[in-house]
Amino acid sequence: MDKKKKQQVDAQNSSAPAPADSLTDDSQNLPETINLQAEIDELMAALQRERADATNLRRRHEEQISNLQGVIKASVIREMLPVIDNFERALKHVPKELEHNDYIKGVQGVVKQFEKTLAGLGVERIKTVGELFDPRFHEAVSMEDGEGDQEVVSEELQAGYRLGDEVIRHAMVRVKVQ
Q1: What is the pTM of this model?
Q2: N or C: where does the chain have the smaller number of CB atoms within 10 Å of the terminal CB?
Q3: Domain boundaries, the chain
Q4: Cα distance between residue 79 and residue 68, in whole Å
C-alpha cells in the first residue's frame, strides 16, 4: 500500500468510534437526553402559557380602553345636552316677526350642527310623540286618562338620547292612555 492510502485508512479508523465505545456513550447519554427533552417540553409549555397570558392581557386592556372611551364619551355628551336643550327652547319661543331673521337662522344652524355632531358620535335621539310608552327610554311626568289600555306618549317635554344600547338621558314625556 502506498503511503497516501495508508494515511487515509488510518484517518478513517481514528475518526470512527469503536463499536463498544458507541454503546457505552449512548447508554450514558440516554438519561441526560431524556432529562433535557423533559426540560425542553416544560419550558415550551411555560412559554405557551406566558404567550396566552400576554394575549389575554392585551385583549382585556383593549376592552377596558374601549369601555373607558364609551364612559367618557357618554359623560361629555351628558354635559352638552343642557346646551342643546337651551338652544331648542330659545327657538321654540322666537317671536313671529323674528322667525326669518338671519340671527335666528344662525341659531338654527348651530342646533343642526349639534345634532349632526351627535349623530356622528353614534348618539340617537329617543323617539317620543306617538310611540308606546317605554320606561326604558321614557320618563313620564304626567298621565292623561283615556278610554284604551295602551299608554302612548302625547308630548315631549325634554328630549332623551342614547348611545348604542345605553340611555344617556331618558326623554321626559307626557303620556295619554288610548
Answers
A1: 0.65
A2: N
A3: 125-178
A4: 17
Give the best-scoring range by mean pLDDT among 9-18, 96-105, 167-176. Answer: 167-176
Q: Grid coordinates representing 70?
A: 364609551
Q: Going by C-beta distance under 8 Å and a sequence separation of 6 or more, which residues neighbour residue 155?
A: 129, 173, 174
Q: Exposure of 138 by Cβ count < 10 A (0-12 exposed, 13-18 middle, 19+ buried)?
A: buried
Q: How long a stretch of residues is the chain? A: 178
pLDDT, tens digit (0-9, with 9 covering 90-100), for 24-67: 455 567 888 889 999 999 999 999 999 999 999 999 999 999 99
Q: CB 115: neighbour CB atoms within 10 A?
A: 14
Phi, psi of 25 (to 5 degrees): -65, -45
Cell numbers that stand for 122 in this block: 353614534
Paired residues of 152 in beta bridges? 132, 176
Cα separation of 6 and 12, whole Å? Answer: 10
Q: What angle do CA 85, 86, 88 make, to 5 degrees?
A: 65
Contact 171, 158 (CB under 8 A): yes
The matching CATH number, chosen from 3.20.20.140, 2.30.22.10, 2.60.40.10, 1.10.10.920, for 125-178 is 2.30.22.10
Instruction: State the Cα–Cα distance between residues 159 and 81, nearest whole angstrom.
Output: 9
Give CA 107 to chain center in angstroms.
35
